[in-house]
Amino acid sequence: MIDPAIPLIILAVLFVAIALSAIRIVPQARAYNIERFGRYTRTLNPGLNFIIPGVDRVNTKFDLREHVFTSRPQPVITEDNLVVNIDTVLYYQITQPKAAAYEVANFLQAIDQLTVTTLRNVIGSMDLEKTLTSREEINTRLRGVLDDTTGKWGIRVNRVEIKAIDPPPTIKEAMEKQMRADRDKRAAILHAEGERQARILKAEGARQQAILEAQGDQQAAILRADGEAKAVERVFQAVHANNADAKLLAYKYLETLPSLAQGEGNTFWVIPGELTEAVKNVTHAFAGDAAQARPSTEKDGREREERGPAEITGPDPAQSASAQAAVDAAEQAEKAVADARDDVRRAGARAGSMPEPREEP
């Protein structure tokens, strides 16, 4: 005989199993598509959900978080007929689980193929140099095309990035050579700029030095001129204060003449006409003193003759010395002129081809 409690236990177990199969707990950031008899009915949101056991079933489960998809390197031909391999990275997110499940069979493959075709269209309108330097433009155009197309699939493309662009090996070598040439060019330009700045600074320094030296020479010349002017003024004052006569001036003129022929570069020297006048002045000056001395001597002789033999005395020693001094002075003046002429001749002989000194008329 069957125990009446057994059917109750079986019914209780079946009820619990049916109740458990009717409960669906969806995790956070997940979405489940429910089909009833093979037809889509609804999408379960995160949390506790109930379905009809045996009637409803979970068809697809989606993760609503952002995903990263890396495509394989794809060969792309540029506008200048060069093949480059481009690797892209996509960041996408499922926004409509129903569309992602029923609008496209395999959305990842569809996104991959759409990326390749769009990338070929974009790169085909650019040359290699522009392709390498226009990544941001390529990313923007790719994202625009993918976002418009994948919107109806319930997928939003948040970002597209060019991971790598690999040109052919020969192009890489040419680019490396060009890069080295550019670096050498920049180095040469920098070196030239440095030399230019150095020369400019040196020129500025030389200019400042020349200016300072010129100013120093100017100040020195001014000071020398002031000193010479003061010296000439003092000599002029001294000459006028002492009332120098023509004899003294003529004698000083004769003393100055030999210095005119002492220069090494003096190959021609003209004796001015004033030299003869100066010699005459000196000679007449001393000759006048001698003449003044002679009459007194003759007068003394006549007086001695009148007084007679007893009154004859010897000549006055003072007067004889004065006359002799005058004669000696005249001879010394003539000798000084002759010495000056000899100095001029010797200076001309040292110079080589200087003619004989001559007097100006």
UniProtKB/TrEMBL annotation:
Residues 286-361 are annotated as: Disordered. Its main location: membrane. Pfam families: Band_7. It comes from the Bacteria. PROSITE patterns: BAND_7. Residues 296-309, 332-346 have a biased composition (Basic and acidic residues). One of its GO terms (molecular function) is peptidase activity. Residues 21-179 form the Band domain. One of its GO terms (biological process) is proteolysis. Keywords: Hydrolase, Membrane, Protease, Transmembrane, Transmembrane helix. Residues 318-330 have a biased composition (Low complexity). It is a single-pass membrane protein. The keyword Membrane applies. It is found in: Membrane. InterPro entries: Band7/mec-2_domain, Band_7, Band_7/SPFH_dom_sf, Band_7/stomatin-like_CS, Stomatin_HflK_fam. GO terms for cellular component: plasma membrane; side of membrane. Belongs to the band 7/mec-2 family. This is Regulator of protease activity HflC (Stomatin/prohibitin superfamily). It comes from Nocardiopsis aegyptia.
